[in-house]
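Bench notes, bay 3.
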Amino acid sequence: MRAGAPLAMALALAGCATRAAAPPPELLTARAAVVQAQDNPLSPLAIAELRQAEEALAIAERVERERPRSTIARDAAYVARRRAQCSLLSSLVRANQSALERALRSQRAGAPRARPGGEPEPAAPDPADDVGRGVTLDGARTRPRQSAR
C-alpha cells in the first residue's frame, strides 16, 4: 500500500496541474466576447464601453487566479462578457443614429428619397402644371364648362 501512495500523489498533483492550466469556459467566453468587441470596425464609436469591458475582463482574470473556479470568478467573467456585448450594441446604435441623422439631413436638403429597390421616388407633381386642366392651385378640381347651346 505504501508503494502506491507516491503514485497516487503524483496522479493527484498532475490532475490539479491540468485543471489549473485550463481556464474555465466562462472566462474563455468572456475573453472571446472582448476580442470580438475590440475587432469590431465600429468600436471607435463605443470606446468608453469597450474600456469597461476590458477592465471587467482584467478583474475576472485576476479573480480567477486568486479564487479558481469560484462563483465570484464566474460572475466576474459574466460581467465582462456582458460589458463586451454592451460595447458591440452601443457601437451599432451609434452607427445607426449617425446614418439616420445623415438621411434626415439629406431629406431636408431636398435630395430625392430612395425607394426600397434603390431608385429615387418620383418628384411630387407641381400644382402649377395643372392650371388650365381643370385643377386649381390648391388642388381642387373644377367642373368643365359646358358650352351653351
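Next record in the batch:
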Amino acid sequence: MELDDMKHAWQTLQVQLEQQQRLHQRLLMESRLDKMRHGLRPLVLGQSIQLAFGVAIMLWGISFWSVRMEVLHWLIVGVLVQLLGMSLVLAAARNLHLIQRIDYAAPILEIQQRLAALRAWRVRVEAPVFAVIGSFAWIPLVLMEIQLDDERVAPKLDIFLLAPWLVSHLILCGCVSLALVVVVFWLVRWAGHRRWLENNFAGKCVQKAESMLEQIAQFKQE
C-alpha cells in the first residue's frame, strides 16, 4: 500500500471515529436529558395534586361564605379560606408553567437558566410566602370546621358569640408559629447551612435535575 493510500485510509478512519464519538456524545446527552425529564415528573404530579387540592379548598370556602353573607365574620372566614385555595392553585400553576418552559432540545446553558428560574421561584418566593401563610392559614379552616360541626347540633349557634376569646387565642398561636419559623430559619443560616435549607426548599427533583445538567456540561467540556 502506497503512502498516499495509507494517509487516506487513516483520515477516513479518523473521520469515522469522530463521527462515532459525536454520536455517542449525542446519545448520552439525550439519555441523561430523558432521565432529567422523568426525574421532574414527581414534582409535576405533586403540583398537579396541589392544584386540585387548592381548587377543592377554594370551592369549600365559597360554599361556606355564599350561604352566610349576612354574617360579616363568617363571610370573612369563608373568603380567607377561598384565598388560601387560590394561593395553592396559583403556586402550583406557576411551578407547572416553569417546568413546561424547559425545552430539552435547547442548549444546555438555556436549560440550566430555565431550571435556575424554577429554583429561584421555589426558594425566594414560594417557600417564604407559604411559611407566612402556613402559620395562619389553619385558623379559618379550624373556625369553619368548628362552626360546621356546631351547626349540625344547633343550626343557629355561632362560635364567635359563644367563645369570643377563641379567635384571639388562635391568632396568638399563629404568631407563635411564625416566630418559631423565623427563629429556625435564622438558626439554620447562622449555623452555615443556608445552602442545605435552599436545597430543601427547591426539592429533590430540582436538585437531581441540576446534578444531571452539571454532568452533561462536564462531559461536553472533556
